[in-house]
Amino acid sequence: MTLRECYEAMGGNYDEVMGRLRTEERVKKFALKFLADTSFDTLKTALAAGNGEEAFRAAHTMKGVTQNLSFDRLYRSSHEITEALRGGISQEAETMLPQVEADYMATRDAIEALQAGE
What we know:
- By secondary structure, the chain is an all-alpha fold.
- It has helices at 3-10, 14-21, 24-34, 39-49, 52-68, 72-85, 91-116.
Protein backbone atom coordinates (compact mmCIF):
# COMPACT_ATOMS: atom_id res chain seq x y z
CA MET A 1 0.00 0.00 0.00
CA THR A 2 1.29 3.44 -0.85
CA LEU A 3 1.02 6.37 1.52
CA ARG A 4 -1.62 7.96 -0.71
CA GLU A 5 -3.65 4.73 -0.68
CA CYS A 6 -3.34 4.62 3.10
CA TYR A 7 -4.78 8.12 3.34
CA GLU A 8 -7.60 7.22 0.96
CA ALA A 9 -8.45 4.11 2.99
CA MET A 10 -8.66 6.05 6.26
CA GLY A 11 -10.51 9.04 4.85
CA GLY A 12 -7.52 11.33 5.24
CA ASN A 13 -6.27 14.21 3.13
CA TYR A 14 -2.96 13.22 1.55
CA ASP A 15 -2.42 16.47 -0.34
CA GLU A 16 -3.00 18.58 2.76
CA VAL A 17 -0.55 16.62 4.92
CA MET A 18 2.06 16.68 2.16
CA GLY A 19 1.68 20.45 1.98
CA ARG A 20 2.29 20.64 5.72
CA LEU A 21 5.03 18.04 6.26
CA ARG A 22 6.58 18.18 2.76
CA THR A 23 8.01 14.65 2.37
CA GLU A 24 6.48 11.19 2.28
CA GLU A 25 9.19 9.97 4.64
CA ARG A 26 8.18 12.51 7.28
CA VAL A 27 4.45 11.85 6.86
CA LYS A 28 5.00 8.11 7.07
CA LYS A 29 7.19 8.48 10.17
CA PHE A 30 4.46 10.36 12.05
CA ALA A 31 1.64 8.19 10.71
CA LEU A 32 3.41 5.09 12.02
CA LYS A 33 3.96 6.79 15.40
CA PHE A 34 0.18 7.16 15.63
CA LEU A 35 -0.03 3.41 16.24
CA ALA A 36 1.65 3.94 19.62
CA ASP A 37 -0.67 6.77 20.66
CA THR A 38 -2.88 5.77 23.60
CA SER A 39 -5.44 8.56 23.38
CA PHE A 40 -8.24 6.38 22.05
CA ASP A 41 -7.76 3.69 24.70
CA THR A 42 -7.62 6.38 27.38
CA LEU A 43 -10.82 7.92 26.04
CA LYS A 44 -12.68 4.60 26.23
CA THR A 45 -11.38 3.80 29.70
CA ALA A 46 -12.15 7.27 31.05
CA LEU A 47 -15.69 7.22 29.65
CA ALA A 48 -16.31 3.80 31.17
CA ALA A 49 -14.99 5.03 34.53
CA GLY A 50 -17.02 8.23 34.41
CA ASN A 51 -13.91 10.41 34.40
CA GLY A 52 -14.98 13.37 32.27
CA GLU A 53 -11.79 15.36 32.68
CA GLU A 54 -9.59 12.48 31.51
CA ALA A 55 -11.99 11.64 28.68
CA PHE A 56 -11.94 15.25 27.48
CA ARG A 57 -8.13 15.40 27.63
CA ALA A 58 -7.80 12.14 25.64
CA ALA A 59 -10.33 13.23 23.01
CA HIS A 60 -8.68 16.64 22.72
CA THR A 61 -5.25 15.05 22.26
CA MET A 62 -6.59 12.70 19.59
CA LYS A 63 -8.27 15.63 17.84
CA GLY A 64 -5.01 17.59 17.72
CA VAL A 65 -2.90 14.69 16.48
CA THR A 66 -5.39 13.73 13.78
CA GLN A 67 -5.77 17.32 12.64
CA ASN A 68 -1.99 17.74 12.29
CA LEU A 69 -1.72 14.49 10.31
CA SER A 70 -4.83 15.25 8.18
CA PHE A 71 -6.60 12.07 9.30
CA ASP A 72 -9.80 13.92 8.40
CA ARG A 73 -12.46 11.31 9.16
CA LEU A 74 -11.07 10.56 12.62
CA TYR A 75 -10.42 14.25 13.19
CA ARG A 76 -14.08 15.10 12.59
CA SER A 77 -15.44 12.49 14.99
CA SER A 78 -12.79 13.21 17.65
CA HIS A 79 -13.59 16.93 17.35
CA GLU A 80 -17.30 16.25 17.88
CA ILE A 81 -16.75 14.08 20.94
CA THR A 82 -14.27 16.60 22.34
CA GLU A 83 -16.92 19.30 22.17
CA ALA A 84 -19.52 16.97 23.71
CA LEU A 85 -17.10 16.29 26.60
CA ARG A 86 -16.19 19.94 27.16
CA GLY A 87 -18.71 20.20 30.01
CA GLY A 88 -18.11 16.68 31.33
CA ILE A 89 -19.46 13.29 30.38
CA SER A 90 -22.82 13.44 28.66
CA GLN A 91 -25.17 11.00 27.01
CA GLU A 92 -24.31 12.70 23.72
CA ALA A 93 -20.61 11.93 24.15
CA GLU A 94 -21.33 8.32 25.02
CA THR A 95 -23.46 7.88 21.91
CA MET A 96 -20.63 9.31 19.78
CA LEU A 97 -18.07 6.76 20.95
CA PRO A 98 -19.04 4.01 18.44
CA GLN A 99 -18.41 6.39 15.51
CA VAL A 100 -15.09 7.51 16.97
CA GLU A 101 -14.15 3.86 17.46
CA ALA A 102 -15.08 2.95 13.87
CA ASP A 103 -13.06 5.88 12.53
CA TYR A 104 -10.13 5.01 14.81
CA MET A 105 -10.15 1.37 13.68
CA ALA A 106 -10.27 2.38 9.99
CA THR A 107 -7.32 4.71 10.54
CA ARG A 108 -5.34 2.16 12.52
CA ASP A 109 -6.06 -0.60 9.97
CA ALA A 110 -4.91 1.60 7.08
CA ILE A 111 -1.68 2.52 8.86
CA GLU A 112 -1.01 -1.11 9.78
CA ALA A 113 -1.51 -2.07 6.11
CA LEU A 114 0.98 0.64 5.15
CA GLN A 115 3.42 -0.70 7.73
CA ALA A 116 3.00 -4.28 6.50
CA GLY A 117 3.89 -3.18 2.99
CA GLU A 118 7.32 -1.85 4.02
